[in-house]
Every structure is written in C-alpha cells, then in structure tokens.
Amino acid sequence: MQAQTAPILLATDLSARSDRALDRALMLAAQAQTSLVALHIMEPTNAPLTTPVWRRLSADHKQLAERRLAEDLADAPVPTSAVVRSGETVPLIRETADHFGCSLIVTGIARESTLSRLLLGTTVERLARQASQPVLVVKARPRKPYRDVVVATDFSEGSRQALVAALRVAGDAPLTLFHAYDVPFGKDAPEDAVVRSFYNDAAQKARAFLDGTPELAGRPAPELVLESGQPETLLSEYVFNRRCDLVVTGTHGLTVKIQ
C-alpha cells in the first residue's frame, strides 16, 4: 500500500460483523503508516424497537458506545481517535470524513448480500455516491493484505478514480481491469466480424484508459479482461470463479470497494 498521511475513517455500528471492518481498517492504516478515526452514529430516540437499547440516543448510551470503541481500539498498532455522534448516518459519515481529512472510508455490512444487491439501493451506495472519499466495504474477515484485486470499469472518470483508489489500497497486489461491453443482437446472432469489432473497440478504449492514468507509471500493467454481456452478471460470475480478494467499481464519480 502506498504511503499516505491522511487518516482512514472506520464507520462502525459496533456489531460483531463490524469487527471485520475494524480489523481491515487497522491493517490498512498500519500499512499506510497513518491514523484511524473510528466513528459510531447513535440511533435517534424514535429508532425501531428492534434497535439494541445501547444504540439509541441518550447520554448514558453515548458513554457506553465511547467505552466500547475505546476497548476495540486499545491494542491498535496506529494512532486512533474515537467519535460518537447522533443523527443521519450518511451525512454524518461524510462530515466526519471531511473534518478529519480522511482519504478512505471503511465500513462493514449489516447482513450478507449479493454483489448486485449491495451495489443497488443501499446506504453504502448512497454513501459512495455522496462521499468525497472512496468507500471500502468489508465482508470477509481479513487474514492478509489484498492479493487479487479486480477493478470494474466503464472507462469513465469515476472508473479512473476507482482504479487510483485501488492502487492506494491494494499496494503491490496484481490488478485486473474488467470491462463488460454490449454487442447488439437482432433476430440473428451477429457475425463473428461484428463481434470482433466490438471487442477491438473495447480493447482500444482500455489501452487509452490505462495510458491516461499516470498513477500506473512504474507498476506492472493490469491484466485486461473484456467480456460481452451484462456487467453485473459477468462481474459477479468472474469474482466468484476467481475468488478475488477485492472488487473495485466506479462510475460517474461513484467509487465503491467491495470485499
């Protein structure tokens, strides 16, 4: 992972599953020789009855959350700060990340989800669309630094931001650039020459995209994977078959990293 001075923000609900995000955030902060800011957002007083009582807003519960954060960070190998706030989740995460000048937001997920479900209609998606920083979503327990990283791209500027973010997080791990392109079908299947022309066009755009990313200078060129079909379906299949450590996506300014 490239050295950086900006801290990393961990957004945690203090659940058992969030421990995975905590472990990964600490690992990344240690690799980058930077500090970690751990943020917990208290639920409002009108939170659903299913919300644990210690996560609802009150002075006592705020102190309890602060104590739990302090306990979680007690043995951290990097400097840490614990922040407990109350209010709307996404705006407060954004505000805290900007206030501390964070370079990355790390969070977990409340439940298991497929890749396509996670990318659509979730708090994580809203956060990634609105935050100035890339968002790393941790699903699996981290056991080692990232080693097999896939960057999904549509060659937009948002995709370039995702690629640069992947370089910062993945360090020297090999990168694969994945692009799914569309070949229009009529009543009959297109001729081989037509299919080949769409592939060649995608390959040309991929090379131009990589050439236009100066952050790749001095690094091995990413492996190119170009497939015809629906991006969500093909990406999910590729990640499952490849057993990738990290998936990075970015479109129209959206940068989301999903483990």
UniProtKB/TrEMBL annotation:
For whether the record's keyword set contains Nucleotide-binding, the answer is yes
Similarity comment text for this entry: Belongs to the universal stress protein A family.
Report the Pfam families cross-referenced here: Usp (PF00582)
> Which lineage do the record's taxonomy fields give for this organism?
Bacteria, Pseudomonadati, Pseudomonadota, Betaproteobacteria, Burkholderiales
* Entry-linked CDD domains: USP-like (cd00293)
Residues forming the UspA domain are 7-139, 146-254
Coiled-coil stretches, from where to where? none
Gene Ontology MF annotations: ATP binding
Protein origin, superkingdom: Bacteria
UniProtKB keywords: ATP-binding, Nucleotide-binding
The entry's protein name is: Universal stress family protein
